[in-house]
Amino acid sequence: MVSNSKSRVFKVAIVGAGPAGYFAAQALQNLQTPELKFEIDMIERLPTPWGLVRSGVAPDHPKIKTVSKVF
Asked: How far apart are CA 56 and CA 53, in angstroms?
C-alpha cells in the first residue's frame, strides 16, 4: 500500500469470524477513501470461520444464511 502523509491508517481487530465479523469488515471496507484506510485482522477461536452459520440460522434471516457464499 502506498502511503502519503495525508492518509490515515487504522488497524482494526475483529474478534469472531462469524456473520457479524464479516459484515463489520465489509462496513469498514466500504468506508475507505484515499485518505482513510483500514487494516483489518479477524481473530477466530475455532479452526474454521462462519460461527453459527455452520450449525444453523433462522429461516427468516436469508442474508445471514448465505454469508459464506458472499465472503
From this structure: 5
Q: Coil, strand or helix: which one is 11?
A: strand
Integer angstrom CA distances of residue 24 from 27, 29, 41: 5, 9, 11
The ranges assigned to domains in the chain are 1-53
46: its cell numbers: 475455532
Once rounded to an integer, what is the mean pLDDT over residues 47-62? 72
1-32: pLDDT as tens digits: 555 568 899 999 999 998 889 999 999 999 99
Alpha helices in the chain (DSSP H): 19-31, 62-65, 67-70
Q: Are the CB atoms for 37 and 66 separated by under 8 Å?
A: no
List the one residue out of 52, 53, 47 whose CA is nearest residue 68: 53
Q: Which pTM value belongs to this model?
A: 0.71
